[in-house]
Amino acid sequence: MSDTIEQIGSGSVIQHVRLNDRVYLMKLKKEDLAAVLQRLEVLTVEKHYSKLFCKVPGSLAAPFLAMGFIPEGEIPHFYDNGDDALFLSRFDDPARLANKPEVELRRFRQLLSETLHPKEFSQKTAAFAVIQLEQSHARQIADLYARVFLSYPFPIYDPAYIVKMMEDDVQYFGAFSGDQLAALSSADIDFETKSAEMTDFATHDTHTGHNLSCLLLHTMEQAMQQQGIRTLYTIARLASVPMNKTFLRSGYHYSGTFINNTHISGHIESMNLYYKHL
Predict the structure, then answer these.
(1) Rounded to whole angstroms, how far apart are CA atoms 43 and 45?
(2) What is this structure's pTM?
């Protein structure tokens, strides 16, 4: 099921799709505030989505809070003017908020209490060649995502979508074993805010256990720093202990959990927010 991306006003962006049963306000411009709030309510009435999920500057949060949104996470000093990015949610179906994954949450709290150190890359891991991927790799990228994820909040199984993302400032990185794409990830860059979402990590099942996510993350961080990016963040699956460990070991700060937020690998999962300032 394809997602819908809506451009509003001078640059605000809304994404929604029935698979997630959710509206995601990905970018909000101050001058578009009234139009965006109106559009969110229209979508709620027309599509009956059970969750509204919004990334907004802290200075624009008050109207959302007045409409019943609650804070689920934040990234301090995200915008050029020093404003924080707040992740605000409204659960129009109370069951979506009430049915929390308590077992996963307890396991994650235990993980946060542990001391995790950066991992040294083994000689075997160092043997993988990591490069920035090009449009000619789109089919390989889509095929690996289709192999790893039963479902995903964006149509990453479509090579045409991958090419479009590359044209829209998403940079993909891959770890190769010979000619085989063993693992990949992406950096979704917003040059306006000098930020990048480190996302879409996937490892071929024949190459797990080699810390390739750590290797890719390290490579992407270097590439982002060279391009003047100052804030990195990710929205990681609460259920994926290895992925959470990857970001905690790499010096990222945990700053919130998004309850029942994203349809991935066959069902809706809760997600953790991490950030790092370069």
Answers:
(1) 5
(2) 0.94
